[in-house]
Amino acid sequence: MERVDLGETPYVAAAAAMAEWVRERQEGTVGDRLFLLSHPPVVTYSARTPAADLPGADSGIALVEVDRGGHATYHGPGQLIGYLVMNVRDGGPGDVVRWMELGLVRALGALGFPAVRRDTPPGGASLVGVWTPDDRKIASIGMRIRKGVTSHGFALNVSMDLSPFTTFTACSLPGVTMTSIAELAGEAGRAVPSEAEVRDAVWAALSGPAAIDS
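-> structure tokens emitted (214 positions)
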């Protein structure tokens, strides 16, 4: 898998580029790639998201409907976005969402922050993503697979303003508490890892031998 580092990219521009990345992978002109980037403030949501979950018109945050799984979430500066464009038909992870959850758990552990994945109870709201041991959510995951190739991916809260998450129902989970690496570092009296350190930890966790065994 190839790592592609990008800077802050408007969501609509990234979505258009992602469609091209997927087409290239479907045609076999490129290999699997993980794109690491960030977005200006935006709330994205899927077609299944209840209207009541979305922020009001006075929130001042752009709203964009997307073609991925999951529900509404917020992207903004200080958050690491990872878009995975991988062929899962030709030997990729059988359960790519679980593979990504476990990879992010490993990355956070390597940075010194314990994290877990959670199983969704039968009939309950989806708990896909990555959580702290005390049930705060630190990373959201929403993906799509088309013609055997994945798109979209994860949003990991690194050092960001978390207040926009209070303006809507994140992930269709009323009452969910979102957290960030910076908040956890503050609670532990530790320095906040740099964005470069977080990117490197995520890449190592998703590309190393342990990732293949997940």
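Strands lie at 2-8, 33-38, 42-45, 62-65, 73-75, 79-85, 130-131, 137-146, 149-157.
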